[in-house]
Amino acid sequence: MLNDVLDSVKSQHFVNWECIIVDDGSTDQSEKVIQDYIKKDNRYKYLKRTTLPKGASHCRNIGLNQAKGDFCIFLDSDDLLLDFCLASRMRIANSHPDHDFWIFPMLLEHKNGQREPLEIPKRKSYLSDFLSYQIHWQTMCTFWKTEFVKSLSGFDPLLPRLNDPEIHIRAMLRPKVKYLVMNRMLPDSVFRYALEKKDKKEFAQAYLSSLILFIPSVAQMLTESNKFGYKRLLRGYLKDYFINHSFFNRRGVNLKLLLISSSNRVLFPSEFMKMVMTYLFFSKFGPFSNKAKKSIEKSLVE
Protein backbone atom coordinates (compact mmCIF):
# COMPACT_ATOMS: atom_id res chain seq x y z
CA MET A 1 0.00 0.00 0.00
CA LEU A 2 2.95 2.32 0.64
CA ASN A 3 4.08 1.86 -2.96
CA ASP A 4 0.61 2.83 -4.15
CA VAL A 5 0.54 6.17 -2.36
CA LEU A 6 4.12 7.03 -3.39
CA ASP A 7 3.34 6.13 -7.00
CA SER A 8 0.19 8.27 -6.89
CA VAL A 9 2.31 11.27 -5.88
CA LYS A 10 4.87 10.57 -8.59
CA SER A 11 2.13 10.38 -11.24
CA GLN A 12 1.01 13.98 -10.67
CA HIS A 13 0.74 16.28 -13.70
CA PHE A 14 1.95 19.09 -11.44
CA VAL A 15 5.64 18.29 -10.90
CA ASN A 16 6.86 20.95 -8.45
CA TRP A 17 6.20 18.96 -5.28
CA GLU A 18 8.07 17.47 -2.36
CA CYS A 19 6.88 14.33 -0.56
CA ILE A 20 7.97 14.08 3.08
CA ILE A 21 7.55 10.58 4.50
CA VAL A 22 7.67 10.28 8.30
CA ASP A 23 8.31 6.82 9.73
CA ASP A 24 6.32 6.22 12.93
CA GLY A 25 8.50 3.28 13.97
CA SER A 26 7.79 0.73 11.26
CA THR A 27 9.22 -2.78 11.68
CA ASP A 28 8.61 -3.99 8.11
CA GLN A 29 10.41 -3.14 4.87
CA SER A 30 9.02 0.39 4.67
CA GLU A 31 12.38 2.14 5.00
CA LYS A 32 13.92 0.05 2.21
CA VAL A 33 10.94 0.77 -0.04
CA ILE A 34 11.23 4.52 0.61
CA GLN A 35 14.99 4.59 0.08
CA ASP A 36 14.49 2.96 -3.31
CA TYR A 37 12.14 5.80 -4.28
CA ILE A 38 14.57 8.44 -2.99
CA LYS A 39 17.40 6.99 -5.10
CA LYS A 40 15.29 7.50 -8.22
CA ASP A 41 13.65 10.82 -7.30
CA ASN A 42 15.05 13.39 -4.84
CA ARG A 43 11.62 14.97 -4.38
CA TYR A 44 10.97 12.25 -1.78
CA LYS A 45 12.30 12.96 1.72
CA TYR A 46 12.52 10.43 4.55
CA LEU A 47 12.31 11.28 8.27
CA LYS A 48 12.02 9.12 11.38
CA ARG A 49 10.02 10.01 14.44
CA THR A 50 12.58 10.09 17.27
CA THR A 51 10.41 11.57 20.03
CA LEU A 52 7.13 10.64 21.68
CA PRO A 53 4.22 10.43 21.33
CA LYS A 54 3.74 7.82 18.66
CA GLY A 55 0.95 8.39 16.17
CA ALA A 56 -0.21 10.08 12.99
CA SER A 57 -0.60 13.57 14.49
CA HIS A 58 2.96 13.82 15.74
CA CYS A 59 4.32 12.45 12.45
CA ARG A 60 2.26 14.95 10.46
CA ASN A 61 3.65 17.77 12.57
CA ILE A 62 7.21 16.55 12.02
CA GLY A 63 6.61 16.63 8.29
CA LEU A 64 4.88 19.99 8.47
CA ASN A 65 7.82 21.56 10.28
CA GLN A 66 10.10 20.49 7.42
CA ALA A 67 7.74 21.49 4.59
CA LYS A 68 9.06 24.11 2.17
CA GLY A 69 6.06 24.48 -0.13
CA ASP A 70 3.34 27.11 0.05
CA PHE A 71 0.61 24.45 0.26
CA CYS A 72 0.37 21.00 1.81
CA ILE A 73 -1.72 17.83 1.94
CA PHE A 74 -1.52 15.18 4.66
CA LEU A 75 -1.63 11.61 3.39
CA ASP A 76 -1.85 8.31 5.24
CA SER A 77 -0.06 5.29 3.84
CA ASP A 78 -3.25 3.89 2.31
CA ASP A 79 -4.49 7.09 0.64
CA LEU A 80 -4.17 7.84 -3.07
CA LEU A 81 -4.07 11.00 -5.17
CA LEU A 82 -5.46 10.89 -8.71
CA ASP A 83 -2.98 12.18 -11.29
CA PHE A 84 -4.70 15.57 -11.75
CA CYS A 85 -5.08 16.26 -8.02
CA LEU A 86 -2.23 18.69 -7.38
CA ALA A 87 -2.68 20.57 -10.65
CA SER A 88 -6.38 21.03 -9.97
CA ARG A 89 -5.88 22.11 -6.37
CA MET A 90 -3.12 24.54 -7.26
CA ARG A 91 -5.37 26.13 -9.87
CA ILE A 92 -8.15 26.66 -7.31
CA ALA A 93 -5.77 27.92 -4.61
CA ASN A 94 -4.14 30.41 -6.96
CA SER A 95 -7.59 31.61 -8.02
CA HIS A 96 -8.48 32.34 -4.37
CA PRO A 97 -5.20 33.49 -2.79
CA ASP A 98 -6.94 35.15 0.17
CA HIS A 99 -8.22 31.79 1.49
CA ASP A 100 -6.58 29.61 4.15
CA PHE A 101 -7.67 26.14 3.04
CA TRP A 102 -9.78 24.39 0.44
CA ILE A 103 -11.78 21.12 0.58
CA PHE A 104 -12.11 18.71 -2.34
CA PRO A 105 -14.30 15.59 -2.81
CA MET A 106 -12.85 12.08 -2.74
CA LEU A 107 -13.61 8.55 -3.90
CA LEU A 108 -14.30 5.74 -1.45
CA GLU A 109 -12.70 2.44 -2.44
CA HIS A 110 -14.41 -0.73 -1.27
CA LYS A 111 -12.81 -4.06 -0.48
CA ASN A 112 -13.68 -5.37 -3.96
CA GLY A 113 -11.79 -2.48 -5.56
CA GLN A 114 -14.87 -0.62 -6.73
CA ARG A 115 -14.87 3.13 -6.16
CA GLU A 116 -17.73 5.51 -5.59
CA PRO A 117 -17.72 9.29 -5.11
CA LEU A 118 -18.35 10.50 -1.59
CA GLU A 119 -20.18 13.75 -2.13
CA ILE A 120 -19.74 16.68 0.22
CA PRO A 121 -23.20 18.15 0.87
CA LYS A 122 -23.81 21.87 0.81
CA ARG A 123 -24.33 22.92 4.40
CA LYS A 124 -25.17 26.14 6.19
CA SER A 125 -22.45 25.52 8.79
CA TYR A 126 -19.68 22.97 8.38
CA LEU A 127 -18.50 23.96 11.84
CA SER A 128 -21.81 22.84 13.35
CA ASP A 129 -21.58 19.58 11.41
CA PHE A 130 -18.07 18.79 12.60
CA LEU A 131 -19.06 19.63 16.18
CA SER A 132 -21.98 17.18 15.96
CA TYR A 133 -19.95 14.32 14.45
CA GLN A 134 -21.08 14.85 10.87
CA ILE A 135 -17.69 14.53 9.19
CA HIS A 136 -17.98 15.14 5.46
CA TRP A 137 -14.35 14.71 4.37
CA GLN A 138 -11.13 12.91 5.28
CA THR A 139 -7.58 14.12 5.87
CA MET A 140 -6.32 14.27 2.28
CA CYS A 141 -9.39 16.19 1.09
CA THR A 142 -8.03 19.39 2.65
CA PHE A 143 -5.52 21.53 0.77
CA TRP A 144 -3.88 23.73 3.39
CA LYS A 145 -1.98 26.95 3.03
CA THR A 146 1.20 25.87 4.81
CA GLU A 147 1.65 29.07 6.81
CA PHE A 148 -1.94 28.82 8.04
CA VAL A 149 -1.75 25.24 9.30
CA LYS A 150 1.61 26.06 10.90
CA SER A 151 -0.09 28.98 12.68
CA LEU A 152 -2.48 26.39 14.15
CA SER A 153 0.56 24.45 15.46
CA GLY A 154 -0.54 21.53 13.33
CA PHE A 155 -2.39 18.54 14.73
CA ASP A 156 -2.92 17.75 18.41
CA PRO A 157 -0.35 14.99 19.08
CA LEU A 158 -2.08 13.86 22.28
CA LEU A 159 -5.19 12.59 20.47
CA PRO A 160 -4.92 8.96 19.30
CA ARG A 161 -8.22 9.46 17.42
CA LEU A 162 -10.34 12.46 16.33
CA ASN A 163 -7.27 14.45 15.27
CA ASP A 164 -8.84 15.29 11.89
CA PRO A 165 -12.13 16.75 13.17
CA GLU A 166 -10.23 18.52 15.94
CA ILE A 167 -7.90 20.44 13.62
CA HIS A 168 -10.77 21.35 11.28
CA ILE A 169 -12.87 22.61 14.19
CA ARG A 170 -9.90 24.62 15.41
CA ALA A 171 -9.33 26.01 11.91
CA MET A 172 -12.98 26.96 11.40
CA LEU A 173 -13.02 28.74 14.76
CA ARG A 174 -10.04 30.89 13.82
CA PRO A 175 -11.16 34.56 13.56
CA LYS A 176 -11.52 35.77 9.96
CA VAL A 177 -10.71 32.33 8.55
CA LYS A 178 -11.59 31.86 4.88
CA TYR A 179 -12.08 28.48 3.25
CA LEU A 180 -13.86 26.98 0.26
CA VAL A 181 -15.65 23.64 -0.02
CA MET A 182 -15.50 22.59 -3.67
CA ASN A 183 -18.68 20.48 -3.69
CA ARG A 184 -19.12 20.34 -7.45
CA MET A 185 -15.62 19.35 -8.47
CA LEU A 186 -14.68 15.81 -9.50
CA PRO A 187 -13.15 13.68 -6.71
CA ASP A 188 -9.36 13.90 -6.88
CA SER A 189 -8.27 11.44 -4.16
CA VAL A 190 -9.11 7.95 -2.94
CA PHE A 191 -9.88 6.88 0.61
CA ARG A 192 -9.51 3.12 1.05
CA TYR A 193 -11.39 2.84 4.33
CA ALA A 194 -12.84 -0.55 3.42
CA LEU A 195 -9.32 -1.99 3.32
CA GLU A 196 -8.51 -1.07 6.90
CA LYS A 197 -8.51 -3.74 9.58
CA LYS A 198 -8.83 -2.56 13.14
CA ASP A 199 -9.12 -4.36 16.44
CA LYS A 200 -12.50 -3.18 17.71
CA LYS A 201 -11.53 -3.17 21.37
CA GLU A 202 -8.31 -1.30 20.71
CA PHE A 203 -10.20 1.21 18.57
CA ALA A 204 -12.82 1.72 21.31
CA GLN A 205 -10.14 2.33 23.92
CA ALA A 206 -8.38 4.88 21.71
CA TYR A 207 -11.72 6.54 20.92
CA LEU A 208 -12.58 6.87 24.61
CA SER A 209 -9.19 8.25 25.61
CA SER A 210 -9.48 10.76 22.77
CA LEU A 211 -12.99 11.86 23.76
CA ILE A 212 -11.84 12.45 27.34
CA LEU A 213 -9.36 15.01 25.95
CA PHE A 214 -11.33 16.17 22.91
CA ILE A 215 -14.56 17.25 24.62
CA PRO A 216 -13.06 19.64 27.22
CA SER A 217 -10.57 20.97 24.67
CA VAL A 218 -13.24 21.80 22.08
CA ALA A 219 -15.59 23.11 24.77
CA GLN A 220 -12.85 25.52 25.87
CA MET A 221 -12.34 26.67 22.26
CA LEU A 222 -16.07 27.36 22.00
CA THR A 223 -16.02 29.32 25.25
CA GLU A 224 -13.13 31.44 23.98
CA SER A 225 -15.03 32.02 20.73
CA ASN A 226 -18.23 33.02 22.58
CA LYS A 227 -20.09 30.05 21.07
CA PHE A 228 -21.36 28.58 24.32
CA GLY A 229 -24.52 27.07 22.84
CA TYR A 230 -22.49 25.08 20.31
CA LYS A 231 -21.11 22.85 23.07
CA ARG A 232 -24.28 20.79 23.07
CA LEU A 233 -23.59 19.72 19.50
CA LEU A 234 -20.77 17.55 20.85
CA ARG A 235 -23.41 15.08 22.00
CA GLY A 236 -23.13 13.64 18.49
CA TYR A 237 -19.74 12.15 19.48
CA LEU A 238 -21.20 10.79 22.70
CA LYS A 239 -24.07 9.21 20.79
CA ASP A 240 -21.74 7.45 18.37
CA TYR A 241 -19.39 6.29 21.11
CA PHE A 242 -21.99 4.96 23.55
CA ILE A 243 -24.09 3.20 20.91
CA ASN A 244 -21.27 1.64 18.92
CA HIS A 245 -18.16 1.37 21.11
CA SER A 246 -18.78 1.83 24.84
CA PHE A 247 -19.38 -1.87 25.61
CA PHE A 248 -15.68 -2.58 24.87
CA ASN A 249 -14.64 -0.37 27.82
CA ARG A 250 -15.21 -0.48 31.56
CA ARG A 251 -18.27 1.21 32.98
CA GLY A 252 -16.19 3.39 35.29
CA VAL A 253 -14.31 5.13 32.48
CA ASN A 254 -17.50 5.49 30.44
CA LEU A 255 -19.15 7.23 33.39
CA LYS A 256 -16.08 9.45 33.65
CA LEU A 257 -16.70 10.55 30.06
CA LEU A 258 -20.29 11.46 30.91
CA LEU A 259 -19.15 13.43 33.94
CA ILE A 260 -16.60 15.34 31.86
CA SER A 261 -19.31 16.08 29.30
CA SER A 262 -21.62 17.39 32.01
CA SER A 263 -18.96 19.56 33.62
CA ASN A 264 -18.22 21.10 30.21
CA ARG A 265 -21.93 21.87 29.59
CA VAL A 266 -22.29 19.38 26.77
CA LEU A 267 -24.96 17.71 28.90
CA PHE A 268 -27.28 19.52 31.26
CA PRO A 269 -27.51 18.03 34.80
CA SER A 270 -30.89 16.41 34.11
CA GLU A 271 -29.59 14.93 30.83
CA PHE A 272 -26.49 13.69 32.59
CA MET A 273 -28.53 11.83 35.22
CA LYS A 274 -30.88 10.38 32.60
CA MET A 275 -27.96 9.17 30.48
CA VAL A 276 -26.18 7.66 33.50
CA MET A 277 -29.26 5.69 34.53
CA THR A 278 -29.97 4.57 30.97
CA TYR A 279 -26.38 3.46 30.42
CA LEU A 280 -26.08 1.63 33.78
CA PHE A 281 -29.34 -0.22 33.19
CA PHE A 282 -28.60 -1.46 29.68
CA SER A 283 -24.85 -2.08 30.16
CA LYS A 284 -25.68 -4.95 32.54
CA PHE A 285 -26.84 -7.04 29.59
CA GLY A 286 -23.76 -6.87 27.35
CA PRO A 287 -23.69 -5.35 23.83
CA PHE A 288 -26.64 -3.05 23.33
CA SER A 289 -29.85 -4.25 21.73
CA ASN A 290 -31.74 -2.03 19.30
CA LYS A 291 -34.01 -1.03 22.17
CA ALA A 292 -31.01 -0.01 24.25
CA LYS A 293 -29.51 1.98 21.37
CA LYS A 294 -32.78 3.85 20.87
CA SER A 295 -32.96 4.66 24.58
CA ILE A 296 -29.41 5.99 24.58
CA GLU A 297 -30.07 7.99 21.43
CA LYS A 298 -33.19 9.46 23.04
CA SER A 299 -31.17 10.45 26.10
CA LEU A 300 -28.76 12.32 23.83
CA VAL A 301 -31.30 13.76 21.39
CA GLU A 302 -30.14 17.07 19.95
UniProtKB/TrEMBL annotation:
It comes from the Bacteria. The lineage of its organism: Bacteria, Pseudomonadati, Bacteroidota, Flavobacteriia, Flavobacteriales. Residues 2-117 form the Glycosyltransferase 2-like domain. Keywords: Transferase. It holds the Pfam family Glycos_transf_2. This is Glycosyltransferase involved in cell wall bisynthesis. One of its GO terms (molecular function) is transferase activity.
